[in-house]
Amino acid sequence: MTVAAGIGYALIALGPSLSLFISVIAKKPFLILTVLSSTLLWLVSLIMLSGLWRGFLPFKSTAWWPYAILVFTSVCFQEGLRILLWKAYLRLEDMLDAFADRLSKPRLFLTDKMQIALAGGLGHGVAHAVFFCLSLLTPSFGPATYYADRCTWMPFFLISAIIALAFVTIHTFSMVIAFNGYAESKRVDQYFVPTVHLIAGMLTLINFAPGGCIISIPLLYFMAALTLIHCGKMAWRRLVDEQRRGITLQ
Amino acid sequence: MEGSILDSLGKELIGVMSPVSICMLLVVLLVSILSPSSSFPSSPTPTPIVTAANLVYSENPSDSTTQKFEGALLNAAVFIVLIAVVTFILVLLYYYNFTNFLKHYMRLSAFLILTTMGGAIFLSLISHFSLPFDAPTCFLSLFNFSVLGVVSVFGRGVPIIITQTYTVILGIITAAWFTQLPEWTTWGLLVALALYDLVAVLAPGGPLKILVELSQSRDDDLPALVYEARPTVSTSSGGGRRNGGLGLLVGGVSDNSSVELQNLATTIGNHSNEEIAVDDERERMRNERSDDQGETIPLVVANSSEIGVVDEERSPLVEMVAGEGRDGGDGNEEAMTAGIKLGLGDFVFYSVLVGRAAMYDLMTVYACYLAIISGLACTLILLSVCRRALPALPISIALGVIFYFLTRLLMEPFVVQTSTNLMMF
């Protein structure tokens, strides 16, 4: 029974990414490589962050502000990393285009670019879910379960799976938004992503209050839905534009 | 509408990575299922198993750290010496053309691994899940399973997918057995093997280097257990080989380069020889013609257009001549498929690392998996740059060990602290 529960938690956190992976990513080997390298990058960033904070942990006081600083620095660090990733992606795009020219094949389509961005985001999201949720699931396969003190309605594993799902969504699609924003140099999109990430990170601080998870989880899902809708609208707009341009060219 | 270049880019990388991933995944599952009960029935339960890898020093949890460290070093040294000796014997045998003996010996060791070690693992699995299974059926199916494995190891005309499957199975079984070693010995062994691999493949006079060069000069298969990531389109291994050779003749380039060989003495005293060889003559040819930017592109180039060309272009000579004028792009050399070869030893020791990580926590498993896979990718990219036999262990093992300890010492407290407070970002 607990094995089933453990698998269930894992699927709650990673199910949507899994179906995204199978339906979009797995068909193109290059996208799989993108996912893997972006996951690795996220892991490296997490290790660097934890190296930074290792001296201060564990916090002795039960105050919430050290955590606020921690979340703030982490988000800033990771958003800086996203800019680096964009720079790397630009070089990659040049290389791929040059390569396509040599093979006399068409250059990267808009959908290709979006798929690469999606794969990069999925890597970040999966890494988040794996390290913050999945890697703590081992005890849930055992005979007992665990409840966090401040949120006693659900087992700890279920809560972390639900929160992880929200973050997976945010990470995955904000990468698409960010890359698009950089490509079109639209300020709004460029600032939208770090803001959402920071707000979502800060929202988890509400969990510090007893019973706070009741409030924080709906808010978190509101942010996730916002990211999703924004990304959907943006992708739709770009695709329609692209199609129209294609028709006028012909 | 023409397909975009993303469609097939990096296919060969994935072709090598996916079996390695499958192997690691299954070893991790095996380890996490079996490690609480912690004993395969055939091993004497109270005392730890005695293998070639801990002849000198058997680790005791109560020993002091220095004692463990010295013991692990000693064990690793003895194991490496043993492997080196066995490899030299194999090279000698191969040098004096005892190829058939070597092949039969490989078959015998594959049979022994599949029956005894595989059987033991199977037994402990069915006893763990308490599945009822009568002895004659068990014996018969195990025998059938092993015989098919033996046939597939060097068999001609066996579908490549079966050979690949059995190579992975052999890797899983051996790796699962190696995870029985005590902790410090495992780490010492892994690091020592990576160093040995580096020397044996790259140093002049290294046994594996000699072996690879010998087999290239004879245009022969390596007498060893190798995973070939060949596209499944090619009909039989013989055909693939011949085509490759012809292509080389025409292209006027030297033979395929192999990546690495490595040898391993298994627990029950039989030795199976493992290696990695990569044929990248295609990239080489491609680069001779258009050697403008060879650094990161070639691997990608070779992968780009091999779909659909394979069957229609059975006369490489003509195609090659015709292709001479064009720049890149055409899939001619790709018709002569000879994929990347990865030695079974690398499968085994990657999986040993991950399996050892699985005994600590899942977090270290993920970190080590990512590190190993990225190390493998680095090796493959290096391969397309260097065009010669390369050891596959050093980069991956180094990254894996580094990430294991970083994760364990730095990341785990951090992640546990934040996420038990339901803090995420």
UniProtKB/TrEMBL annotation, chain A:
Chain ranges passing through the membrane: 6-25, 30-52, 64-85, 116-137, 157-179, 191-209, 215-236
Protein's membrane topology: Multi-pass membrane protein
Residues in the signal sequence: none
Short name of one Pfam family: Aph-1
Record's protein name: Gamma-secretase subunit APH1-like
Keywords: Membrane, Notch signaling pathway, Transmembrane, Transmembrane helix
Keyword Aminoacyl-tRNA synthetase annotated: no
Any single GO CC term annotated in Swiss-Prot or TrEMBL for this entry: membrane
Recorded family membership: Belongs to the APH-1 family.
UniProtKB/TrEMBL annotation, chain B:
Superkingdom per UniProt: Eukaryota
GO BP field: membrane protein ectodomain proteolysis; Notch signaling pathway; protein processing
Topology relative to the membrane: Multi-pass membrane protein
Residue spans crossing the bilayer: 12-34, 72-96, 108-127, 161-178, 184-203, 363-383, 389-407
Keyword field contains Ribosomal protein: no
One Gene Ontology cellular component: gamma-secretase complex
Phosphoprotein keyword on record: no
E.C. numbers: 3.4.23.-
Annotated localization: Endoplasmic reticulum membrane; Golgi apparatus membrane
GO molecular function annotation: aspartic endopeptidase activity, intramembrane cleaving
Gene3D superfamilies noted in UniProt: Presenilin
Principal localisation: endoplasmic reticulum
Entry keywords, A to Z: Endoplasmic reticulum, Golgi apparatus, Hydrolase, Membrane, Notch signaling pathway, Protease, Transmembrane, Transmembrane helix
Self-association and partners: Homodimer. Probable component of the gamma-secretase complex, a complex composed of a presenilin homodimer, nicastrin, APH1 and PEN2.
Role description: Probable subunit of the gamma-secretase complex, an endoprotease complex that catalyzes the intramembrane cleavage of integral membrane proteins such as Notch receptors.
Family: Belongs to the peptidase A22A family.
Free-text comment about domains: The PAL motif is required for normal active site conformation.
UniProt-recorded name of the protein: Presenilin
